[in-house]
């Protein structure tokens, strides 16, 4: 039986503020999207992940609701590749270490809107929210086989 690898809690400092985040492999079926995807972008990512054999960057996820904050297209590409797990930076979405805006003129996106759309399943259009972190999301280069089969990184 395969085990789910976990990276211990990490403190990342940026902008003179400490941000506590955890990086874990999350079962893909537990993740909640809040935005629709663009199929062409998913296909491009799918081919890139398949060619490299790794996922370079983890997604960003609200630790309380498992809402995907950033990485909808990566999650869908991994789903199509048969992945069971997705590497995720888990954040306290209520913390000041993360803020939300929008890419769309005339839209107002709030953390409450992001959570409620994820919980309701009534997704926002693609590329609506823009999350800004006060920490760098690290490159992990997780092998695709680990995400598909589980096991050690």
Describe this protein's structure.
The longest helix has 14 residues, at 39-52. The chain has four helices and nine strands; from the N terminus they run ββαβββαββαββα. Helices cover 25% and strands 31% of the residues. The chain is globular, with a radius of gyration of 15 Å. Helix 1 (39-52) packs across helix 2 (72-80). The chain has helices at residues 39-52, 72-80, 111-120, 144-149; strands at residues 6-14, 17-27, 54-55, 59-62, 68-70, 85-91, 98-102, 129-133, 142-143. Strands 1-2-6-4-5 form a five-stranded mixed beta sheet. By secondary structure, it is an alpha+beta fold.
Strand order of the largest sheet: 1-2-6-4-5
Strand/helix succession: EEHEEEHEEHEEH
How far apart the termini lie comes to: 15 Å
- Helical residue percent band: 25-40%
Shape: globular
CATH architecture: Alpha-Beta Complex
CATH class type:
Alpha Beta
The biggest beta sheet is recorded as: 5 strands, mixed
């Amino acid at each position: 039986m395969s085990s789910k690898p976990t990276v211990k809690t990490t403190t990342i400092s940026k902008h003179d503020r400490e941000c506590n985040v955890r990086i874990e492999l999350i079962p893909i079926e537990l993740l909640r999207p809040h935005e629709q995807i663009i199929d062409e972008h998913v296909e491009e990512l799918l081919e890139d992940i398949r060619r490299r054999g790794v996922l370079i960057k983890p997604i960003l996820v609200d630790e309380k609701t498992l809402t995907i904050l950033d990485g909808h297209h990566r999650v869908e590409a991994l789903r199509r590749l048969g992945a069971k797990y997705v590497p995720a930076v888990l954040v306290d979405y209520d913390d000041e270490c993360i803020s939300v805006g929008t890419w769309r003129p005339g839209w107002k996106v709030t953390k409450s809107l992001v959570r409620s759309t994820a919980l309701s399943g009534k997704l926002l259009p693609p590329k609506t929210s823009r999350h800004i972190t006060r920490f760098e999301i690290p490159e992990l280069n997780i092998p695709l086989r680990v995400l598909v089969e589980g096991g050690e990184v």
